[in-house]
Write a structure and sequence with these properties.
Elements (H helix, E strand, L loop, with lengths): L3 H14 L3 E4 L10 E5 L1 E7 L8 H12 L3 E5 L2 H12 L3 H11 L5
Parallel strand pairs: 3-4
Antiparallel strand pairs: 1-2, 2-3
Length: 108
Amino acid sequence: MPGESELERKLKDFAEEYGCYVRKFTSHHAGVPDRLISKELTLLLEIKDFGKKPSMLQQEEISLVCATGGFATWVDNYDDGMVAISCVIKNRADWLRKQCKKRNFWMK
């Protein structure tokens, strides 16, 4: 499995190949997801090393974005990242909402 930076690069390349706007997202507020991926829909994506999960602070930030109608989730592998990004590429808010809900295990 690739490390976090390699996974981040591969997912960035995949999204850009399909015309997405991709930026490393930095904030003065701790816990905000790593990447902003946009193509009509905008996804905030936290990228973790394989087998790692978001911290409580990251979970809270992801939950807040989703609770206010936005799209945010996390991934620890390429396949899950591709699925989430594909929802953005295909402009499928319904699919993206389901993916976020599925990955955000702490939200009920």
